[in-house]
Design goal:
alpha/beta; Rossmann fold; 2 domains; 17 helices; 11 strands
């Protein structure tokens, strides 16, 4: 497809790499927020095209990865109930809970189904009025409109056998949490283009001004990312801290207003715990008003638990840009896609999964670094 291929052509990418060599005069650390961007960077070797002064670190932009362990356990308990049809995107089925995952619930006879849209789950509820259909509503602002529409339609149709287990998270509060951390090393951000397609980028302007960090809304193909890096480094080298839009073919400053209105109608902003990171104020979405009747947590009375991550898993540090996957003691040995310790190894947007698939040699380098340490 020309629309994609033109952003993967070698010569424009090499030209941007050469421009970056000329532009960069000192070390800079940038974070790509989105896991989709992480996979493109690792798959196409974009980080290896950059001047050695530029370091890319990977952010918490994988909603599957940051869904808290406690909510995974709630999903497992709900999915195990005989009257429930539990619907989810495929990535969530392999995310490890405390002792098992949703795939093991399915293998044990639970009615767990992979769907491609929340509207698929809504149709199941329409067709099976004798079953309770639950959709695992996971995602950033990108998927919030579709999930809001499913709840809106369920309310409009009076579907009493449909509910959602909500694990929506918001990008700007996570960026602020990273920037305010004493361990922060991020000097500029590549913001997720698909999130900004929905929300626009006005929310990032106060962050750029408060923390004096450039934010560049960036697409997902190699040329997109290299151009985003160039725009971000240019700001840093020139002493600017602004929000710029590289992804102009999809993103506008105000975003998609009807989608935003629907999100605000169905959801309200709540505090949210992020797996491996902790609770971030005002960083999640929960159902509001009459739509609370479709909250699966309330409907099935699942109890709250305080659970601990496997001590060997450093996915929290990876999601905060403090470490990279190959620096984990368990990477590629005790933690693999077949036997994961954390969600970053199984999600299609997880940083550990990207390194395992495209950079297995990083495992050997990590082992060498750990031995030297």
């Amino acid at each position: 497809m020309k629309f994609i291929d033109e952003y993967r052509e070698g010569e424009p990418a090499r030209k941007l790499a050469r421009l970056l060599v000329k532009k960069t005069t000192r070390p800079w650390t940038l974070m790509e927020v989105c896991g989709g961007q992480t996979h493109s960077i690792v798959k196409f070797g974009i980080d290896q095209m950059l001047p050695e002064q530029i370091t890319l670190v990977h952010g918490p932009g994988c909603p599957v990865c940051v869904t808290p362990l406690e909510l995974i356990e709630k999903a497992i308990r709900i999915a195990s109930r005989p009257e429930v049809v539990f619907c989810s995107f495929g990535d969530m089925l392999r995310v490890p809970g405390q002792e098992r995952d949703l795939l093991s619930v399915k293998a044990s006879g639970g009615d767990v189904r992979i769907v491609y849209s929340p509207m698929d789950a809504l149709q199941l509820a329409q067709k099976h009025p004798d079953r309770q259909v639950v959709f695992f509503a996971v995602g950033f602002e990108t998927t919030a409109p579709a999930n809001a529409m499913a709840v809106y339609q369920a309310n409009r149709q009076g579907l009493e056998n449909f509910s959602v287990l909500v694990s929506h998270v918001l990008v700007p509060p996570a960026m602020e949490a990273i920037l305010s951390s004493p361990h922060n090393r991020v000097q500029g951000f590549l913001a997720a283009g698909h999130v900004c397609t929905v929300m626009g980028f006005t929310e990032y302007e106060p962050i750029a001004a408060k923390y004096r960090v450039p934010v560049v809304v960036t697409g997902f193909e190699p040329v997109d990312i290299l151009q985003g890096v160039y725009m971000c480094v240019s700001q840093l080298e020139e002493g600017r801290a602004e929000v710029e839009n590289q992804y102009t073919r999809s993103v506008t400053r105000p975003g998609n207003r009807p989608a935003q209105d629907l999100i605000r109608q169905v959801f309200r902003i709540v505090p949210r715990k992020w797996r491996g990171v902790g609770e971030i104020p005002k960083s999640g979405l929960g159902l509001r008003g009459p739509y609370k009747a479709f909250d699966a947590e309330t409907r099935f009375q699942v109890e709250e638990q305080q659970l601990e991550e496997p001590p060997e898993c450093i996915s929290g540090l990876i999601l905060q840009g403090i470490k990279k996957p190959h620096q984990c003691q368990a990477f590629g040995t005790r933690c693999t896609p077949e036997r994961p310790l954390g969600a970053t190894m199984v999600s299609s947007e997880g940083a550990c999964a990207a390194y395992y698939r495209y950079r297995k040699y990083e495992q050997k380098r990590g082992e060498k670094e750990r031995l030297q340490a």
